[in-house]
Design a protein that fits this description.
Elements (H helix, E strand, L loop, with lengths): L9 E2 L4 H6 L3 H14 L5 H27 L1 E4 L3 E6 L5 E6 L5 E6 L1 H5 L2 E7 L8 E8 H12 L11 E4 L13 H19 L8 H11 L3 H28 L3 E4 L4 E6 L4 E7 L3 E9 H5 L2 E8 L5 H7 L1 E7 H15 L27 H29 L3 H27 L1 E5 L2 E6 L3 E8 L3 E7 L2 H6 L1 E8 L5 E8 H11 L5 H5 L1
Antiparallel strand pairs: 1-2, 2-3, 3-4, 5-6, 5-11, 6-7, 8-9, 9-10, 10-11, 12-13, 12-17, 13-14, 15-16, 16-17, 18-19, 19-20
Helix pairs in contact: 2-3, 6-8, 12-13
InterPro entries: UCP026631, YdbS-like_PH
Organism: Streptomyces morookaense (Streptoverticillium morookaense)
Keywords: Membrane, Transmembrane, Transmembrane helix
């Protein structure tokens, strides 16, 4: 049997150096763009920028060489050890039982070279809580992932595959904010790049001609045309981004009792979530996606890094039909619950899907609070601003203020009613179900045993309305999930029923 001292050290792949040399594409691409935009006559600022980027490239390449030469790692029977550093040597030894998830990613250059980056999360919320190796050969990365997760037990499931990609899901890609936001973000990025190399974007030939052509046309024609162009670009961009992120998507249970998501076209990603760390799921239905009959799913799990990293790694189903999202939720939580049965089987309705069970409605005061907030934050500021400007400048703005108030008020009321209908909570067997939101409606299903604490929040206005917001603290996901504006008289009793005995002494008092 190999002892701790006899466990051999391993090194990164020599192809890591080639991957770092890919940084040369950035300065060459930037300089080529400059030559194209200036007709082959770049200015002094462009040459200066190229020199700066080249220096940065050389520094990064040198750092890659140091990383390759000075990185060693090994997996002992009880720990993962990593040695790095040149002037300051850094030695890390992490017990295997602390490793919560193992991710594999590969950008296009690394895929061509047959490499992958392995990141093992230890459950902390900082970068220091993550072990990273870049880059390993793909087979070596797969073997190391299996080694690090080998302590988990097997899954008792007839079919380990939960869900796979369907090309028809592309129709849900445009039903997101990024259909417009992505276009403006891309234009802003290109604008900054051109400005950084000394090029005035508005002086480029076709851009200048486009602005001149728009300027000579009537606004009633140019504005709709511009919106149509932005929408078309947004749809194409959203579908391309969806395809790149979720190409060959596959959600499955591995033999090591780990839920694994594999996806990606140019940059491949493989995220593993240990079954023991699953605390529930979140069914997400943004307004546009909900209107199209779609939804996405996130896992509520510990050990996925800080909040930002958690939001990226916890997605286990992209925008897809709602029926598929509900099926994934049921399957994942059924497996997470072991042989105790799938979610929803203990509900009074007798339905098999947890997302179909009825939820307890909230007091009508919650509807009034949402409508009043909409009036104060959406209707009143714009109306008052237009009215003040109308009194100071022209009476036309007074009519605009009145028209805005008349048109915006029913819209706000409709949104408030939708937000109120979305509110709900319930206990179903071993699960706590929470739903809220209108622009971003979420149905959260949590394992009741994972709730560590309850927090009750109110304000003078909520106390007057007789409602309170209860927050279930969980060491996973967003760290806490809110039941907004539930009846104050029922909050403590519901919390005690959800986690038996936690509030009993306070209720007795």
């Amino acid at each position: 049997m190999t002892t701790h001292a006899e466990t051999p050290w391993r090194t990164l792949s020599p192809r890591t150096l080639l991957a770092h040399c890919a940084w040369l594409g950035a300065p060459l691409g930037s300089f080529g763009l400059t030559l194209l935009a200036t007709g082959g006559h770049p200015g002094a600022r462009a040459w200066s920028t190229l020199g700066t980027v080249t220096v940065v490239f050389l520094v990064i390449t040198a750092a890659g060489l140091v990383t390759y030469r000075r990185t060693r790692y090994r997996v002992t029977p009880d720990a993962f050890e990593l040695h790095t550093g040149l002037f300051t040597r850094r030695v890390r030894s992490v017990p295997l039982h602390r490793i919560r998830n193992v991710d594999l990613t590969a950008n296009p250059v690394q895929r061509v070279l047959g490499l992958a980056v392995l990141r093992a999360g230890t459950g902390g919320g900082t970068r220091s809580a993550e072990l990273s190796l870049e880059a390993l050969t793909r087979p070596a990365a797969e073997r190391l992932r299996v080694e690090l997760l080998a302590r988990a037990g097997a899954v008792d499931a007839e079919d380990p595959v939960v869900s796979t990609a369907d090309p028809r899901w592309l129709r849900y890609a445009p039903l997101t904010f990024w259909i417009f936001g992505g276009v403006f973000a891309a234009v802003g990025a290109i604008w900054r790049v051109l400005d950084g190399v000394g090029i005035k974007p508005w002086r480029i030939g076709f851009v200048r001609h486009a602005f001149e052509g728009f300027g000579r046309s009537a606004l009633w024609l140019t504005i709709p045309l511009a919106l149509l162009v932005v929408t078309a670009l947004g749809v194409v961009g959203a579908m391309a981004l969806y395809a790149e992120n979720w190409w060959k998507y596959r959600l499955e249970w591995t033999d090591e009792a780990t839920l694994r998501v594999r996806r990606g076209m140019f940059t491949t990603r493989s995220v593993s979530i240990e079954r023991a760390r699953l605390r529930g799921v979140v069914l997400r239905e943004p307004m546009l996606l909900r209107a199209g009959g779609g939804a996405s799913v996130r896992a509520v799990a510990g050990g996925l890094g800080n909040r930002e990293e958690n939001r990226k790694r916890s997605v286990i189903l992209p925008p897809a039909p709602k029926s598929e999202a509900e099926r994934v939720c049921t399957h994942v939580l059924g497996q997470q619950g072991g042989r105790t049965g799938r979610m929803g089987q203990t509900g009074q309705t007798g339905q098999t899907g947890q997302m179909e069970v009825p939820l307890t409605a909230h007091p009508r005061a919650a509807l009034r609070r949402r409508f009043v907030r909409g009036l104060l934050w959406v209707v009143a500021p714009v109306t008052v601003a237009l009215a003040v400007l109308g009194a100071l400048l022209t009476p036309v703005l007074l009519y605009c203020a009145a028209a805005y108030a008349v048109l915006a008020t029913p819209v706000v009321h409709a949104l408030a009613r939708d937000a109120y209908r979305s509110l709900g909570h319930a206990l179903r067997g071993n699960w706590l179900v929470i739903r809220s939101g209108t622009f971003q409606r979420e149905t959260v299903t949590l394992d009741r045993s994972s709730v560590l604490a309850w927090t009750f929040t109110d304000t003078p206005f909520s106390r007057r309305a007789g409602v309170v917001t209860a927050t279930a603290a969980v060491a996973a996901g967003e760290d806490g999930y809110r039941i907004r504006d539930m009846a104050a008289t029922e909050a403590a009793g519901f919390a005690d029923a959800a986690v038996s005995g936690m509030l009993r002494e306070f209720l007795d008092i």
